[in-house]
């Protein structure tokens, strides 16, 4: 993971350009491979995330960062039908898929580092499987802080490394085998999935993530570790 205190504008933009072109290449097969690797549990994890979101909803839209093919907003339209989602992504190919599949009603191309929205616009900012890809988490969380209404929340789901060493060993082994296999079966680029494997290994621990959130002006509400710690949902409330 990056040293968050030494990131320049140029390195941030270069990182985002690289990540976006990588996601552009795998956009078509992403959803199938994600379901394959997670053994179909990805939807259950998103459902658990939406349950947390429901607990703190206010009367304002939800901003979905890195919406990909729109899996979260599609599920939300069934689970939380009254909640309005604004689905955003940096990668054009994903926005096209989200639009054409009818998974998302309102879409915009947005970088998590520069949210083009007024202060106090959203009741929540959500993301699923995105945090590991961002070049500057503090910048992103500060943008969330600015655009959230008073008492608004962030509710973020991501893959994490299991805390118990033997489990983390087998998890890492599984990822090493399942990622290239999934890519091969669905005819996608294996390089992108090698990156995914590395990004999980380098991700912050939930303790580290929570202290970054606190530093950026959030109060931690819940840290839900699921599936033996391979997946974590971070829920935190903005302090304004
Ligand atoms: C692993 S996919 C997750 C997609 C979706 N949220 C899901 O639930 O499956 C990560 C997504 O984050 C997007 N992304 C990566 N970096 C981003 C950034 N800096 N700003 C906005 N979106 C970004 C990618 O384009 C991709 O769609």
Principal-axis shape: globular
Q: From N to C, what is the helix and strand string?
A: HHEHEHEEHEHHHEE
> Any idea what the CATH superfamily is called?
Vaccinia Virus protein VP39
User: How many domains make up the 3D coordinates?
Assistant: 1
Distance between the termini: 29 Å
Helix count equals 8
What percent of residues adopt helix (DSSP H or I)? Answer: 40-55%
| Main beta-sheet strand count, sense and barrel state | 7 strands, mixed
Please indicate the percent range of residues in DSSP E strands (runs of 2 or more).
15-25%
CATH class term: Alpha Beta
Question: What features would you describe in this structure?
Answer:
The chain has helices at residues 9-37, 42-55, 71-79, 92-101, 137-147, 165-185, 190-201, 206-215, and strands spanning 62-65, 85-89, 106-109, 122-128, 148-159, 218-226, 231-238. It is of the alpha/beta class and 240 residues long. It has a single domain, classed as Vaccinia Virus protein VP39 (Rossmann fold). Strands 3-2-1-4-5-7-6 form a seven-stranded mixed beta sheet, sandwiched between helices. The protein starts with 8 loop residues before the first helix and ends with a strand. S-adenosylmethionine binds next to helix 1 and helix 3. S-adenosylmethionine (SAM) binds next to helix 1 and helix 3.
């Amino acid at each position: 993971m990056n040293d968050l205190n030494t990131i320049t504008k140029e390195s941030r933009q270069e990182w985002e350009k690289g990540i976006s072109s990588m996601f552009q290449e795998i956009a078509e097969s992403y959803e199938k491979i994600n379901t394959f690797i997670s053994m179909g549990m990805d939807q259950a994890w998103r459902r658990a995330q939406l349950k947390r979101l429901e607990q703190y909803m206010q009367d304002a839209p939800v901003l979905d960062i890195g919406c990909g093919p729109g899996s979260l907003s599609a599920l939300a339209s069934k689970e939380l039908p009254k909640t309005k989602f604004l689905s955003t992504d940096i990668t054009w190919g994903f926005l096209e898929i989200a639009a054409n599949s009818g998974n998302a009603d309102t879409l915009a191309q947005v970088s998590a580092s520069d949210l083009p929205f007024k202060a106090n616009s959203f009741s929540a900012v959500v993301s699923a499987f995105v945090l590991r890809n961002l070049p500057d988490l503090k910048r992103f969380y500060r943008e969330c802080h600015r655009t959230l209404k008073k008492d608004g929340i962030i509710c973020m789901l991501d893959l994490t490394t299991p805390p118990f060493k033997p489990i983390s060993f087998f998890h890492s082994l599984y990822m090493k085998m399942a990622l290239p296999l999934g890519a091969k079966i669905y005819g996608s680029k294996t390089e992108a999935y090698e990156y995914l494997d590395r990004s999980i290994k380098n991700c912050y621990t939930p303790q580290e993530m929570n202290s970054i959130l606190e530093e950026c002006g959030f109060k931690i509400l819940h840290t839900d570790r699921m599936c033996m710690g391979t997946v974590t949902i971070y829920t935190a409330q903005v302090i304004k």
